[in-house]
Amino acid sequence: MAAPTLSTDFAGRRWPLFKLSIRTGLLTVLTVGLYRFWMKTRLRRFYWSSIRPGGHPMEYVGQGIEKLLGFLIAVVILAFYIGIVNLLLMFVSFSLFDGNYAAYVASFVGVIPLWFYARYRARRYVLARTRWRGIRFGVDPGAWGYAWRAMLYWGLTILSGTLLWPLMTHRLEKYRIDRTWFGDRQLEQGGRWTGLIKGMIPFWIVLALVVGFVVWGYVLTPEGTFSTEDSLEALLGGLVISLPFLAIAFAWYSVRSFRVLTATKSAGPIRFESRARTPRVIGIYMLGFTATWLLTSLLAIVLLVAYFGLLFLAVGAEFSLDDLDNLTAPGLPLQLLGFAVYFLIFIIWGAFQHIFVTLPLWRHYAETLEIVGSEGLHDIRQRARDEHHEAEGFAEALDLGAAI
Amino acid sequence: MSAQGFADFFDGKQASVRRVGYRVETGGIVLDIPEQGERLWPMAALREIGDQAVRTNLVLTLEDAPMSRLILTDKAAIGAVRSGAKSLRKGMPVRGLRAVLGWAVGAVASVALIVLVLVPIMADQLARILPAEGERALGEATLGQIQTALADDFSNFVPICQNPEGLDAMQTMLDRLMATGPALPHDVTVTVLDHDMVNAFALPGGQVVFFRGMLETATDPDQIAAVLAHEIGHVAARDPTRIALRSAGSLGVLGLVFGDFAGGAAVLFLVEQLIQADYTREAEAAADDLGISMLRDAEISPAALGDLFEVIRDMYGDAEGIAAHFMSHPSLGDRIDKARAASENMSVTTPSLSDEDWLALQTICNYPWD
Questions:
Q1: Sign of the Cα pseudo-torsion (B61, B62, B65, B71, in order)
Q2: Low-confidence residues of chain A, pLDDT below 70?
Q3: pLDDT (mean) for B316-340
Q4: Is B107 near chain A, with CB under 8 Å?
Q5: Does B272 score more than 60 pLDDT?
Q6: Of A9, A36, A126, A141, which is most buried with the most CB atoms under 10 A?
Q7: Which Pfam family, any one of them, does this sequence belong to (chain B) (predicted)?
Q8: Which residues contact A118 (CB under 8 A, 6 or more apart)?
Q9: How far apart are CA B153 and CA B357, in angstroms?
């Protein structure tokens, strides 16, 4: 008898998501950003409930208020770092280096470990608030261990000129997955990092072409072809043209390594299979962002024309473009309306991005995912609640918003 | 009403899916759970899990068994539950509200402590020991930020006025003040920005910045000399350095609290701080005193400062926020009186610029070929 396999449905539709996104976006603006914790919670509830492995919805049970609490905790700690440490860095930088670049660099470098730390903690929080079939997911503590490993593997990746990127991908995924639980069942990341190498080859080919182009221009030609201004432009143009190819080659790697890593994950006897397709993912990104950009621009133009029309009506003949310099010219209600239009454009952008990029991506990744050997699910028991008071506060404070 | 059928039930203890029979009655939903018998989920304790992607389903939990889930798919049953259960939308009991309040107070207190106490104290101490070269670099960096932030939509930054005759006139005025002036931590450099604002301010490293609007509003060169002398007073006390370091510290904290939602708001705030330079009353008085004594030593009438205030007041009304740097302090009348009093017993005064130089200074933002 073949092992029972669960396929995954995706039930989320665009229009309800659009409405939810607009409504919560408006509330966020009206509350000067306070509602953003609830906005995130509600959007996650929608996305999670859209994903239905075996026909049973995932559930997100995080609360807005705990995100607010986590954010406040992070503010108390980070305010000290950002206020005092940055001031000192600024001072040292201007004293010793006569400029603020050293301060920016030091401040940035100082935040890097915190950034990885926050990423791990945020993932731990989100999974601790995720349930499927009534059972919690969970992640063991280990954020600092993750932070130093991430910096080590990033260092190796950069020093090796991206040759060790697959090693980084595999080791970090293994660190995360081996500490992840579904109920009382621990997940495991198997496979070897060398299994990811093949997916990097297109990226390396493009990279080699770009490096070859630069080397050819600078070193191999006797006078240096790029010495004149025209040829410098040619060099920059070449680099700009190569960026989309690098991005596509990297997307190829991301999707392929996702498939390989999924196939080598296990939870006891349960295994997984992903049939995510690179062309589809790239297509969603390109079409999705194009649609988002076009529709937002269109709506923005309509809104701005309407707003300026209103300005002309209200201020009449006295109004001229010079008044734009003088913000008090149109009077308070119209100024407020102006701000409202400004924020509305951001909200619309966010909503379009949800329905044209995020939702199709999630749908594709969900619908191509299978759970193999699902009879192994029956003896999984509940795990204790992970209180995790600080929630994803650091990630929120450091602006690691990610998709949602 | 009565609706019944089978539904998916999760007990929150194990991962298996149970099909349970149910009946919707007036008192609640009666569940028939295999091997456990019948159980009543009372209407008043039913709660809906919101924001579901599948709108035709109703996902239920129970107030006192928050881990369990019942997923109804039958339209009639959902209708019966919706009309019978009145507190479906009521939130589950919120835990940790007290902790939120505690940390909220803590967050406000720590941000206030850092922005209002620690950062100013440190900035004042650090401003004293910042080497002159570093101070100059800080001033140049902030001038760049101001030029960018005040630019309109059609240019990237506010240009610096460069008409050579105007520059010479400004240098003449500065030389005259400095010839008899005090020793300063920096050589003073004066920059005029091509902008309508009626204002002037000092930056770290001995930079004094005038806006074109200020030069055009003044009716007499001595008024500009008086403003210049006042700003040099701030330079002597290193006031701008203090403000710049302060905002460097508090900016990041405020950005952290409010997020980068409105983008660039933080930089605008920095510029606002520097231009409106909200110095303490003592710092303003000290700058006035040094300014007045410099004017007297250079045989320029300090009364010009009072005249300038009046010109601005006539043009823009009393509390219009123009030249807020000068106007915002409540003791404005006193300061005018002090400036006038200081000029009373002066026997010899000479205008700070010739008519020709004054015209050149006022048109410093014109290109030479205009």
A1: negative
A2: 1-3, 97-100, 217-234, 315-332, 389-391, 393, 395-404
A3: 60
A4: yes
A5: no
A6: A36
A7: Peptidase_M48
A8: A143, A392, A394, A395, A398, A400
A9: 33
Q: Tokens 């003073």 identify what position? A: B188
Provide the chain A residues 39-78 that lie in CB contact (below 8 A) with chain B.
Answer: 42-43, 45-47, 49-50, 52, 56-57, 59, 63, 65-66, 68-69, 72-73, 75-76, 78
- To the nearest 10°, report the CA torsion of A101, A104, A107, A111: -130
CB distance A195 to A201 below 8 Å: no
CB neighbour list of residue B43: distance below 8 Å, 6 or more residues apart: B26, B27, B28, B29, B81, B84, B85, B86
CB of B256 less than 8 A from some CB of A? yes
Looking at per-residue confidence, does A404 or B237 come out higher? B237
DSSP letter for each residue of B123-173: HHHHHHHS-HHHHHHHHHHHHHHHHHHT--TTSSSPPBP--HHHHHHHHHH
Q: Average pLDDT of B344-363?
A: 82
Distance from C-alpha of A312 to C-alpha of A307, rounded to nearest angstrom: 9
* Cβ-based neighbours of B274, under 8 Å, separated by 6 or more: B142, B146, B201, B203, B240, B243, B244, B247
Which stretches of A354-385 are DSSP H helices? 359-367
- As a whole number, mean pLDDT of residues B28-32 equals 93
Residue B120 tokens, joined: 């100013």
| Best residue in B9, B13, B20, B52 for a mutation probing chain A (most A CBs within 10 Å) | B52
Whether the Cβ atoms of residue B241 and residue B319 lie closer than 8 Å to each other: no
Q: How far apart are CA A231 and CA A250, in angstroms?
A: 28
Q: Cα separation of B163 and B211, whole Å?
A: 14
Q: Which member of B111, B119, B133 has the closest CB to residue A87?
A: B119
CB atoms within 10 A of CB A74: 25
B226 touches chain A (CB under 8 A): no
What is the complex's ipTM, to 2 decimals?
0.81
Average of per-residue pLDDT across B292-312: 83
User: Which A positions 322-381 lie with beta carbon below 8 A of chain B?
Assistant: 324-325, 377-381
At B322 the pLDDT is 45
Q: What is the rounded average pLDDT of the residues B298-322?
A: 71
Cα distance between residue A265 and residue A180, in whole Å:
11
Query: Looking at residue B142, what is its pLDDT?
Result: 80
- Interface residue of B13, B54, B211 to substitute, partner A, most A CBs within 10 Å: B54
Dist. CA B147–CA B209, nearest whole Å:
11
Q: How many residues does chain A have?
A: 404
Q: Is A400 on the interface with B (CB under 8 A)?
A: no
Q: Residue A379, Cα to own-chain centre: how many angstroms?
A: 35
State pLDDT tens for residues A168-213.
999 999 999 999 999 999 999 999 999 999 999 999 999 998 888 8
The two structure tokens encoding residue A360: 């199709």
A134 to chain B, any CB pair closer than 8 A? The answer is yes
CATH class of residue range B3-84: mainly beta
**Per-domain residue ranges of chain B:** 3-84, 102-362
Task: Using the predicted structure, report yes or no on whether residue B104 has a pLDDT greater than 60.
Answer: yes
**How many Å apart are CA A296 and CA A290, to the nearest integer?**
10
What are the residue ranges spanned by the domains of chain A?
Answer: 5-397
Q: Which residues of B touch A135 (CB under 8 A)?
A: 10, 12, 14-15
Question: Which of A101-105, A138-142, B236-240, B361-365 comes out lowest in average pLDDT?
Answer: A101-105
Token reading at A249:
């080659």
Question: At A14, phi and psi to the nearest 5?
Answer: -65, -45
**B154 has pLDDT over 70:** no
pLDDT, position A23: 95
Check whether B327 has a pLDDT greater than 60: no
